[in-house]
Fold this protein.
Amino acid sequence: MPNTTYPTQPLPTSLSSLAQEILRKAEAAKLDRKLLLREERNIRQPDSWLMERAWQVLADSGADPETGEAALTAAILAEPSQPLAVAQALYRLAKQGVDHPGQRALIEARLERLRYSLFTPWVADENAFAERLLLAGATAARIGAESFAFACLERLDQVRFIWRQVFFLPELRALLAEIVALTPLHPLTVQLIRAAIPRHDEAGAHFLQTTAAVAATHIEQTAAFPARRVLQRCVDTVAHTTLISLISRRCAASIFARAGRIPDVHDQVVTIATIQEAHRESGIRSRTRDADDMLLRHVSRSRANTDVDFQVYTLQEALNALPPDQVRGVDNPELDGLLEMLVQLGVRSDGWTAASTASTLIGVGALKQAVRVVDKIAPDDATRSEGVVSLVRGLLAADEEITADLEVDKALVWLRATDDRNLERVTIWGLAEAFLHHRQPGKALALLPQRSKPGILYRFRKNYQKFADEEDLREDRIRLEAALLGDRGGVNGSVMVADDLFERVRTWAPKLLEGEALVTYYARLLDALLRTEQLGMVWRLLPDVVDALVGVGGNKHVVRANELAHMLAPLLQIQGPDRPQADRALRTFVDKLWQGNAKQGIWQAVYGIGGILPLVLALDGAEAVTAIARFTAQNGSGWGQLVEKVVRTGPHERVE
């Protein structure tokens, strides 16, 4: 059984000093060539990657001037290898909001320092120059510096043929849409909106769609009149422009929905269906999916109809874009017609489309229509499981418990009529977790015995040899969370039962799972413990999480470490006697993780430090993250050469 307590050796007083020690150890560690070749081949250097990660974490958390200043300091350190680092950091800081007066002043002052490089008459790299101007313009638009944003657009307009590149690249197009949506109408922005589709076709339609989305969100948050004018200009443009491609019509439907023009949305979907029918009749488009569709989907969907899927996706985008006051609690015959159209289309393709349709209907409160869609999924279609689980979750979220129970009963009848044991267990587990999410442990536990019993030989061997399998592991996690919820609510739960289940899970999980699967299992278990406020079990589980996480390499290590860091950081906000214990447990967690990373070389150490930086920020503040970035800038220039030397060395050659 894994250790249940942390070692008692003294911890480093500063995580930044610990990170520096770890990086030195990793630099001296022997690298495994096979491991380096097995992981994705990096086009980045370890030092530049870690510095970028540092300023990104700080900027994404920079709601106050101190953290914002630290983010800009780290970005300046990264500028030699990332020329746009400061501009990108300013943009991220502006997205966090400028409610603090010092934050606004900080961003404005830094934008003024960039003025010379932004408005220089010499342009070396047009794409980089355009991105820098658009980042600065979007930053200015978000803090209300409208004249600065317009100046950036006017300078960009002086570069020959630059708008073609801006509209072609999605990242630049999105930045331009933000500037246009968050500033009042200007002669240049009016011209950009008006000429978007005639000059840039589908790219222009996407630009108008993004602009309308940003403007609508801004209207909901601030009720700003200039944003209403921008949204109306986008609507007028698509209403009076000839739309050639189906993609443009799909974008137009979304734009009309932003303005609440439901009849126009209906007309666009009908027009799309008519064009698709004409394509089929003329032989331009076959009724079945071709090789390109199969390649794009990456899954086998022999029952799917891509034309229907396109119409369904268009309607889903439009429904999600409708203003909230037109969706819920309003008797609107036009909206009812749109929902009925989605219901009819959703059942004409395969189960994946039907399940997605049901989720959309649940999201807009059309629960009865969602039930109809799920009921029409073919019984032999495995994707019906996803539709059933999504439907029950939506019904529980809408406090429709009686209807949810009826749907569960129908699902159990359907499962008993199938011979697919895997489909049965996945569906029952999904339904049980849905009830747990809404704090109904009794109903969750009642679902588990509904599974088909395994054969007598399997049960005899299992009872005799006393072993567990992955199914037991999944169900034990469900039972554990149910026991914890039951203990808190007085329903079928006790601390003793929960503790026994917890120890059983800790014993069998490392034996049955490995790598990323084990980390994923621990993350879900940790989430359940945090939601039920079982801090004692959290401290006991953290050493197991470290052991599992160290075994995951490459970019997956960063993703999982970052996920865990965001889950654990809120523990530092607790008050009372548990606060010192939380601080020590999390520092030990970071220490053990980094020590394990250091043994695997410089890249793994960099990944481990970069992934856990949100937790470092919560523990030691922005200064610790800045100190790590500064150490990397001063000492990391040779890290990449160490890796390349090992990679280029043959398997039988010795690396000095």
Q: What stands out?
A: The CA atoms of residues 416 and 452 lie 8 Å apart. Residues 1-8, 286-292, 489-493, 652-656 have pLDDT under 50 and may be disordered.
